[in-house]
Design brief:
Elements: H1 31-40, H2 54-65, E1 76-81, H3 84-92, E2 103-110, H4 120-143, E3 147-151, H5 156-162, E4 169-178, H6 192-195
Antiparallel strand pairs: 1-2, 2-4, 3-4
The structure holds flavin mononucleotide (FMN).
Flavin mononucleotide (FMN) is lined by residues 42-43, 45, 96, 98, 149-153, 187.
Length: 202
């Protein structure tokens, strides 16, 4: 008689003849196309006078809120300015925006989403989340054939007044966007082997 109490071997995977289910349609992306959008994005600072359509504005908005963010608190708020007179007023307080765009995004950190004052993660790291949303916006704009340029050079006070921003919203970045006056020109990058290391820095 044996008292062998070894745990049972894990069950063998069920043999099945059914092929794996295809990914849901919304996940069926073209990797090469996505990587091309990422690789070929470059800032666009000059725009034609053509407006950004409602459909494109909605697609840009959807890209913003799809971004990863700390604890999924979504401690952000975005104002997409397209009304021409208001756009010129915002631009007047954003010296980092050189030409006249069709759209200005004001991307804000929403401090009211923090648990309390001690929630330093949201108060401090929230800017990282806003930056991630802005990168989504830049890539979506490029994918739509639009151009965009982020800027951290702006006067938050006047922009706060112009857009009726409540105190708990802190503008972090403005982005100008529109139809490119010229094709985007890739900016030079440091050699990839100089900045990307595998497994250790040596
Ligand atoms: C935090 C931040 C602030 C920036 N501020 C400005 C700005 O005020 N004006 C501007 O024209 N571009 C601004 N840029 C755009 C950079 O100049 C641009 O991303 C950089 O030269 C690399 O070019 P690329 O985006 O075409 O690869 C900013 C970018 C970042 C990430």
């Amino acid at each position: 008689m044996t008292t062998d109490t070894a745990p049972p071997a894990p069950a063998a995977p069920q043999a099945t003849s059914a092929p794996p289910a295809p990914p849901p349609a919304e996940h069926a992306v073209d990797p090469a196309g996505v990587l091309q959008v990422i690789r070929t994005r470059a800032v666009v600072r000059e725009f034609t006078g053509e407006p950004v359509s409602d459909d494109d504005a909605k697609a840009l908005a959807a890209a913003l809120v799809a971004a990863p963010n700390g604890a999924n608190l979504q401690a952000w708020a975005f104002v997409i300015v397209r009304r021409p007179q208001l756009l010129l007023s915002v631009r007047a307080f954003a010296p980092g925006v050189f030409a006249i765009p069709a759209l200005i995004l004001v991307a804000c950190l929403d401090h009211s989403r923090a648990a309390d004052e001690s929630d330093t993660r949201t108060h401090k790291e929230g800017r990282l989340c806003v930056a991630m949303a802005v990168e989504n916006f830049l890539l979506a704009a490029h994918a739509l054939g639009l151009g965009a340029c982020p800027s951290s050079s702006f006067l938050p006070g006047p922009i706060r007044v112009l857009l009726d921003l409540p105190d708990h919203l802190e503008p972090v970045m403005v982005v100008s966007a529109g139809h490119p006056a010229h094709p985007p020109k890739p900016a030079p990058r440091r050699d990839i082997d100089e900045v990307v290391h595998y497994d250790n820095y040596a």
